[in-house]
Amino acid sequence: MRALLRRGELARQLACNIETIRYYETIGLIGPTERSSGGHRLYSKADRTRLRFVLRLRELGFSLDEVRSLIAMVERGAHTCGQIADMADAHRRNIRRKIEDLQRLERSLSGMLAGCHRGDTPDCAILEALAPE
């Protein structure tokens, strides 16, 4: 790997969109190390590592504010493993709540579908369940 990468090369290596990198730059999560004489943004190995960190956090469902907070904590060295574990655990609990909510929605829709006769008439048990009189 060369010492510095252009944006397209960085995007290819990390399998992300150039627009994603551009957006993360715009909101200050990442930034190029320098620019080439032609004005191209150049990224270091540290930039690549940071972007991979951001992408992984986003894959896990962390919000941009949470990502920003974690980066700030790590960069300042103002974190303990316990604090990071607490953040991860809070996020996991939030995911579980969302899963429970989705399961409730799925059960509700399943109940509506069970009452549906799928006939050729305009009378629809699903519509009646959604907008009871």
From TrEMBL:
Domain HTH merR-type: 4-73
Listed GO MF terms: DNA binding; DNA-binding transcription factor activity
InterPro entries for this protein: DNA-bd_dom_put_sf, MerR-type_HTH_dom, MerR_fam, Tscrpt_reg_MerR_DNA-bd
Keywords: DNA-binding, Transcription, Transcription regulation
Keyword Repeat: no
Pfam families listed in its UniProt record: MerR, MerR-DNA-bind
Protein name, as recorded: MerR family transcriptional regulator
Species for this entry: Maricaulis virginensis
Lineage: Bacteria, Pseudomonadati, Pseudomonadota, Alphaproteobacteria, Maricaulales
